[in-house]
Specification:
The protein has ten helices and six strands. The chain has two domains: 131 residues, Rossmann fold; 68 residues, Arc Repressor Mutant, subunit A, CATH 1.10.10. α4 packs across α6. The radius of gyration is 17 Å and the shape is globular. α4 links the parallel β4 and β5. A six-stranded parallel sheet has the order 2-1-3-4-5-6, with helices on both faces. It is of the alpha/beta class and 211 residues long.
Length: 211
């Protein structure tokens, strides 16, 4: 069973997240701050750490995301849907971002996607991200030349589709999509799915790039 840890400084909200997850996952910790989780040592046992972006003051906990992402996959939940917050969390290393308005089924699916090594985000947030990157592009914005099919693959990945879903949408085999992704990673010099998604969103936001 997928093991999750929950970080939220609002007890009622934290309990609500626990209740949503209890039937599908093993909740190994539920704390108010990232520091508490580190003190417990439980972060080394969690497959996914689900954390509120603003759980330790008035600023987004980007440093905590970066620290926790080094030992587990991080799924951010937040009431904020602002582009700066979404971009900041992803650039800090988060493997997904969902708002607290998300339905239970979508939230559970996001946890499963992140635990499996994927990247989870609603289409609405993806649109917000693209707009945010268009206004404030990341410092490293790969401009490698991709083929039309590679661009199409990258665009679908930016929307949160898995390789199998991309293959179905494009009418090719999953093995073909895997090959496209390996070529894209080599050209853009990115590693994991989160980095690939960040690159995809950045490219789709630039004038002249395909969405």
């Amino acid at each position: 069973m997928i093991r999750v840890a929950v970080i939220d400084d609002h007890p009622i909200a934290r309990h609500g997240v626990e209740q949503m997850l209890a039937d599908a996952f093993e909740v190994v910790a539920s704390v108010a701050t990232a520091a508490e989780l580190v003190a417990l040592g439980t972060r080394l046992r969690a497959d996914v750490i689900i954390m509120d972006l603003y759980h330790d003051g008035e600023l987004p906990c980007l440093a905590a995301i970066a620290d926790l992402a080094a030992v587990a996959r991080v799924l951010v939940i937040s009431a904020s849907g602002q582009a700066s917050d979404v971009i900041g969390a992803i650039q800090a290393g988060a493997s997904g971002y969902v708002t607290k308005h998300a339905e239970t089924d979508m939230f559970v699916a996001a946890v499963r996607t992140v635990a499996a090594g994927g990247f989870a985000m609603s289409s609405q947030l993806a649109d917000i991200l693209q707009a945010g990157f268009a206004i404030q592009p990341p410092a490293t914005s790969p401009a490698a030349e991709l083929s039309a099919r590679e661009e199409e693959t990258l665009g679908l990945i930016a929307k949160g589709l898995t390789h199998s879903q991309v293959a179905t949408r494009m009418g090719v085999t999953k093995a073909t999509v895997d090959t496209y992704v390996e070529r894209i990673r080599a050209k853009l010099q990115v590693g994991n799915k989160a980095e690939l998604t960040r690159a995809a969103l950045a490219r789709s936001a630039r004038p002249g790039e395909r969405a």
